[in-house]
Design goal:
Number of helices: 6
Number of domains: 1
Number of strands: 3
Strand order of the largest sheet: 1-2-3
Helix content: 40-55%
Shape: extended
Order of helices and strands: HEHEHHHEH
Largest sheet: 3 strands, parallel
Structural class: mainly alpha
């Protein structure tokens, strides 16, 4: 084509962001119930609330991506659900450190206020973990992240804590 210059090197920022946004808008990654098909579900283990993804996370997600693609090729209905932090030890340590800087103590706050503070941290950094994971290649099919420290699960996970 006259007047069209082809770049010497591929620049993913010029292509991938546009396509990725198009796929998200079309809900191309959404899990769908498919009656008559064998179900295959896998949950991405949650990163810590620090939000930092390591090469271990990338390796795990790559292996899961391979398993998910294979299940799709076998004709299964696939749900690949992103996990987010479940308020583990790293979460509690980080939140307590923040509280100390503010002159607060989790025991004096009470369980509900402490939980709200932890939840606030988990949802803000969980989003960056999910987007970092997606940017590394694999994209989960689930649209609702699995947060294990919720009102439904809290009674069993908080017994004897706080």
């Amino acid at each position: 084509m006259p007047g069209t210059e082809i770049a010497k090197a591929y620049d993913p920022s010029q292509v991938e962001t546009r396509w990725y946004e198009t796929w998200l808008a079309a809900k191309a990654f959404a899990g769908r119930a498919e009656p008559g098909k064998e179900a295959f579900c896998i949950v991405i283990p949650p990163p810590n609330v620090t939000g930092v993804l390591t090469m271990g996370h990338v390796l795990n997600n790559t292996i899961q991506d391979i398993l998910v693609r294979r299940a799709r090729q076998e004709g299964k209905a696939v749900l690949w659900l992103p996990g987010t932090d479940h308020a583990g030890l790293a979460t509690q340590t980080r939140v307590e450190k923040e509280l100390r800087k503010e002159g607060l103590d989790r025991r004096k706050m009470g369980r509900e206020k402490f939980f709200q503070r932890v939840w606030s941290g988990a949802t803000s950094t969980g989003a960056s973990s999910s987007s970092s994971s997606s940017a590394s290649g694999p994209r989960a099919t689930g649209t609702a992240p699995c947060i294990r420290w919720t009102a439904r699960t809290r009674p069993s996970t908080t017994a004897g804590r706080c």
